[in-house]
Amino acid sequence: MSVRVVAPGKVNLYLAVGPVDASGYHPLATVFQALDIADDVVVRPSNTLSLSMPGTDLPVDETNLSIRAARALAAHAGIEPLAEIEIIKRIPIAGGMAGGSADAAGTLLALDVLWGLQTPQDELLAIAATLGADVPFILVGGTALGARRGDLITPLRAVGHYTWVLITQQQGHSTPEAFRVFDENAVPGLPQPVVDPEFLEAVAVGDVGAVVRDARNDLAQICLARHSGARAAADACESLDVPYLVSGSGPTIAALCESGDPEALRAELAARLTGATCLIARGPARGAHLA
Ligand code: C5P
What we know:
The protein is α+β, with helices and mostly antiparallel strands. Helix content is 35%, strand content 26%.
C-alpha cells in the first residue's frame, strides 16, 4: 500500500516585507500562486522512518523538512513516526519556489492519509506553519494572500491563467541571506507591509499582464544585485519586452508568456541564457492533493 501526493511549487506575485521582529522573522504581505511544477511525495508503511530523494544530493537526515514534518504530525497525533518516504523532485532546488516547503506539505498530507488520522485542516495548517512560512500555502494552493510571516493564508478571488517560462539557475540563493541584506538596507520606520488594493483588483479580474507588470517584490533587487544569472535572466526579459518577476527571494525568474507559443519563448530565453534551465509552468494550480 502506498499513498502518493502531488505537492506544487509557487511563485510570489507580490511580496512586501516589513521590519524584522524580535523572533528574527519579517512580517509579509504576499500573494502566492501555485504552479503545475510539482514534487511527488510517496509514502509506504514501514517499521522505521526513512527518506529517499532519488537523483538529488539533498540531505535526507533529521534536518530535512520532510522528516521534520513526519515527526511533527506523529507528535501531534501521539503516535510513532513510522513510514518510508520517497520524494520525486521536479521543483527547482533553492530557487525561491518553495521546493522544500512543498515536500513538507506533501509529507503532512500523505502521512495523514497513510496513518488514517483525518487531522482537521486548521490543525494541519498550524503544524505546517511550525515547519516553515511557505508550508501552509502549499496545502491550500490556488492564489492566496499570505499575512503574518506569509503563513496565515486567505484564498483570493482570482481569475485568469498564467503561462510562465521559469528561468532557473544552477546555483541557488539563500533566503535567510536575502532577508539579512534587506535588514542592512532597511530604512528606519519601515511600515507594516500591505498589498496594494489595485493589485488585488487586477488579480481578481484576471488582468494577467497588469498583475505581472505591477508585481512588487521587496527582495528582488537584492537577488538581482547578488546573482549574476538572475540579473542576466531579467535583462533578457527586458530586452524582449517580456514582463517578469523574481520568485520569492530568487534566483528563479518567472517570465510571463502573454500570447503566442510558450515553447518559442522558452527556446528564445534558453538560447540567450547559457547556464540557465528554462521550463514552462502554468498557474494557478491546486494545492497539495492525492494523485
Ligand atoms: O520559514 P522558513 O524556514 O521557510 O524561512 C527561511 C528563513 O527566511 C527564516 O529562517 C528567516 O531567516 C527568513 N524569513 C523571514 N521572514 C519571513 C519568512 C522567512 O525573515 N516571513
